[in-house]
Design brief:
Elements lengths: L1 H19 L13 H11 L2 H15 L22 E8 L1 H14 L3 H17 L3 E8 L16 E8 L6 H16 L6 H8 L13 E6 L28 E7 L4 E8 L5 H20 L13 H10 L2
Parallel strand pairs: 4-5
Antiparallel strand pairs: 1-6, 2-3, 5-6
Helix pairs in contact: 3-7, 4-5, 4-8, 5-6, 5-8
């Protein structure tokens, strides 16, 4: 995961620098190992603790729609193929600042505002008032595991109901309550949640949710600098995806950088580029008036709105 990658890069740089100068290993001994965490998790997550977490997720997700039915460029294949691509985009510094101010006014986090906007857009596009969105959590709640390399990440399925056409402020209250509840029950692995719910399984899409949202605020890997060497990144083409849509966002301090990963069997690249613009426009509407109802938030560019309402008619 990204947190482990940051640790790996830092430790490799520290070790290489020391060994190239003839010095001994400067890294301190770890108090525990990843295997120790795995044993602790198995011992703790059983009995009443497991039952409480299981009951929470059954209550949250029972009866949720099996599929987010977004308008696609092509029919969904019977078997999911995992071919994909990604479209990069940026939210301006002014919009980023406005989103942070909105979060502060509503007593929530930037992630919660971004999640509310993503849920509102998916609801508007699909026509569904009940939306489930997946999000990863670092799941490093104890200080002892922060310096460990290991896959601690868990996935949370956040269910949001927009069928009552809430205002922006009301939606943010719901998002906050949903997210806080999920964080308090994040220990049970997602695959166990799927087993508990026993959803109707399909080879054509992932269970529980088909859309993700990630806000990257993990340990920064930074630049790898090694004495006597010049290093550069090697970009790799992005050709796979696990979900229909996965939105990844990073607060750069000078705006918000985004990447919208998509299943290329369902969507054209041009369509995803439009979705990224829709998202930015809808967030702008949220910032402009948090008393406006979700169904009234603008997201179409003026030219596209004119074409849809008048050009095609």
């Amino acid at each position: 995961d990204a947190w482990s990658t940051g640790i790996l890069v830092q430790e490799f740089g520290t070790l290489y620098t020391a060994y190239s100068q003839g010095r001994p290993d400067p890294l301190p001994e770890l108090s525990i190992q990843y295997a120790d965490y795995a044993v602790w998790q198995r011992q703790w997550l059983q009995g009443e603790a497991l039952e409480a977490q299981a009951d929470y997720w059954k209550g949250q997700l029972s009866g949720a729609p099996a599929l987010l039915e977004l308008p696609t460029d092509r029919p969904r294949p019977a078997v999911q193929g995992y071919a994909g691509g990604v479209v990069a985009f940026n939210l301006s510094a002014d919009l980023g600042a406005g989103l942070k101010q909105l979060a502060q006014r509503q007593g929530c986090t930037l992630f919660m505002v971004l999640l509310a906007g993503w849920a509102a857009l998916l609801s508007r596009l699909s026509g569904q008032g009940d939306v489930v969105i997946g999000t990863p959590v670092a799941n490093r709640q104890r200080g002892e595991v922060e310096p460990l390399i290991g896959f601690f990440v868990n996935t949370l399925a956040l269910r949001l109901k927009l069928d009552s056409n809430p205002t922006v402020g009301e939606l943010l209250e719901q998002v906050k309550a949903t997210a806080v509840g999920a964080y308090g029950h994040q220990d049970i692995p997602f695959e166990q949640v799927v087993d508990l719910l026993k959803p109707g399984r399909s080879m054509g899409h992932s269970p529980i949710f088909q859309s993700m949202l990630t806000l990257d605020n993990t340990l920064d890997a930074g630049e790898l600098s090694l004495p006597g060497l010049m290093l550069s990144d090697l970009d790799q083409p992005h050709v796979t995806t696990q979900f229909d849509l996965s939105l990844s966002l990073t607060d750069t301090g000078d705006g918000i950088a985004g990447g919208l990963e998509y299943a290329s069997e369902l969507f054209d690249r041009a369509t995803i580029g439009r979705l990224a613009h829709y998202y930015g426009a809808l967030l702008g509407g949220m910032v402009a008036d948090d008393r406006r109802r979700i169904a009234r938030l603008p997201y179409l560019p003026v030219a596209e709105r004119e074409q849809l309402l008048y050009g095609f008619n």
